[in-house]
Structures are given as structure tokens and as C-alpha cells.
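Posting for a labmate who doesn't have an account.
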Amino acid sequence: MFLNYFALGVLIFVFLVLFYGIIAIHDIPYNMAKKRNHPHADAIHTAGWISLFTLHAIWPFLWIWATLYREDRGWGMQNPIATPDDVPGMDALTQRVAELEHKLAAAQPVADKNTLEH
């Protein structure tokens, strides 16, 4: 009789550990988002609970979503668009483009005469 109760106790213990483990695993993206001060931490937490009912299909995307944001650099797009003054060698490129445009403008009337004659 003791072994029956012991087996029942082990089954209940295993069930509770698995239940808690599944919940703890699904809270990993939320905990990561909370640690990083993610602006969408609440949405990630809600989506984590929803993923329990969608057979965990969206859980990897929650992990990615939680790791995309960092408080020190935001979404990783902090570098502003470079202005022409910031690009090294931009003066030489601008001068080369001007020369090519000048050559193209000088050669274009000749090309137009040739197309009209044929």
C-alpha cells in the first residue's frame, strides 16, 4: 500500500515540476525583455502565454523579439545616415562624376546627329 502512495506522490511531483518547467521556459523571453528594459516587454509576456496554446510555434520569434532591443543601443540602428562630408574620398568621387557628366554632355549632340542620319 505504501508503494502505491509513493508512486502517486512521485507522479504528482513530476507533473508539477513539468508544469512549472514549461511555464518557466516560456517566461525566458519576457525575463530577457524585462532585463533589457524592452519597450514591448508586456506584449512579449502576453505572447509567451499565448504560445502555450499555439503549441509553442511563436516562442522562437518571441526570443528573437526580446533580444533585438538593448537599452544602450536601441534597436541597433543608431548610426545616422552618412552625409557626403562624412564619407572619405567623397570630394574625388564628386569631381569624377562632374567630369563624366561633362564628357557625356559633350558627346550627346554627336550621338543625336548619328541617330538622325540613319
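Reply:
Got it, the C-alpha cells are right above this. Helices lie at 2-26, 28-35, 41-53, 59-68, 90-117.
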